[in-house]
Amino acid sequence: MEVLNGNQVSKSLKIAIKAEVEQLKKDGKKTPHLAAILVGNDGASMTYVAAKEKDCKEVGFDSTVLRFDSSITEEELLNEVIKINNNPAIDGLIVQLPLPKHISEKRVTETIDYHKDVDGFHPMNVGLMFKGLPSFLPATPFGIVKLLEHYGIETSGKHCVVIGRSDIVGKPMSALMLQKNCTVTVCHSKTKNIEEHILMADIIIAAVGIPEYLKASMVKEGAIVVDVGITRVDDSNNPKGYVLKGDVDYANVSSKCSWITPVPGGVGPMTRVGLLLNTLEAVKRK
Question: Catalytic: which of 55, 91, 117, 119?
Answer without folding.
Answer: 119
